[in-house]
Amino acid sequence: MATDQGCKDATILVSSCTIDPFLYSFGNLWRLETYSCIRLLFAAPLPIPSSEKSIMPVPASDTPSTILVVEDDDIVRMLIVDVLEELEYKVLEADGCEQALEFLRDEAKSIALMMTDVGLPVMDGRELAKQARILRPELPILFASGYAESIDVPEGMSVIGKPFSIDQLRDKVKSVLS
Question: How far is it, in rounded angstroms, from Cα 157 to Cα 84?
């Protein structure tokens, strides 16, 4: 029997969009997104059964690593950010290269990893990576692409193929940061 112990409030957001409906979960969040001229986003925190708590790892140190996520697609960026935050990483979001470069130029911001889409408007992800390495030479970079098998990844950088599962993202981020 399900109870509401440990549950907080739910959120509903409606906006215009048209995509197929789907339900997904990660950690203790469930989202139902349905698209047909409207977008309904429902997020309800649910308690995690004790048997599943070990599935969700925390970053190695007490201070969570900060990951810069660069993705021009709002929905994809939201999903990646939600998963990384659920995995207890701090996340900076950029919807394109200009915003990402602003974060990278700010030396007060500690950034442990930049995860970027390859196909960005204005400047693609590979060019952004070159610019990022000029500003932060040791910054690990993780490319995300639907064409991962055909991408030449510069030395010292990694790639994850879209679509990816939560476990694949968790494992890839963990391996790049270690």
Answer: 19
